[in-house]
Amino acid sequence: MPIYEYQCSKCGEIFEAFQRITDEPLAHCKYCRGRVEKLISHSSFQLKGGGWYLTDYARRNSGDSADKQDKQKQADAADSKTGKDSTGSEKSTESKT
């Protein structure tokens, strides 16, 4: 059941109310019986798990090539740390002049 926030125009009190979506909005403050207005609140909605665009569908068409590119970048980074090129042989560090 959603939680709605209301603010009283008479006393300024802000309070929450559990209501069904089909329920009528509250009209009176539960503290002073003044008129209230429904507030628009921030939500804490979060998508978790599989089945969402980012986790399952974003790379579907280019997934294989993107994975290969990622693996190649990781291999190149590892090779640059060890001083080897992509074929596994030692890189030449001499400068040709």
Fold blueprint:
Elements: E1 3-8, E2 14-18, E3 36-39, H1 53-57, H2 63-82
Antiparallel strand pairs: 1-2, 1-3
Helix count? 2
Low-confidence stretches: none
Task: Using the CA coordinates, give the radius of gyration.
Answer: 30 Å
Strand count: 3
Arithmetic mean pLDDT = 77
Roughly how many Å apart are the termini?
Answer: 76 Å
| Major sheet size, sense and barrel closure | 3 strands, antiparallel
Oligomer: single chain
Q: State the helical fraction.
A: 25-40%
Beta fraction: 15-25%
Class of secondary structure makeup: alpha+beta
Comma- or semicolon-separated keywords:
single chain; 3-stranded antiparallel beta sheet
Describe the structure.
This protein has 97 residues and is an alpha+beta fold. It has a domain at 3-39. Helix content is 26%, strand content 15%. The chain has two helices and three strands; from the N terminus they run E-E-E-H-H. The chain has helices at 53-57, 63-82, and strands spanning 3-8, 14-18, 36-39. It has a three-stranded antiparallel β-sheet with strand order 2-1-3, with no helix packed on it. The termini are far apart.
Short description:
The protein is an alpha+beta fold. Helices cover 26% and strands 15% of the residues.
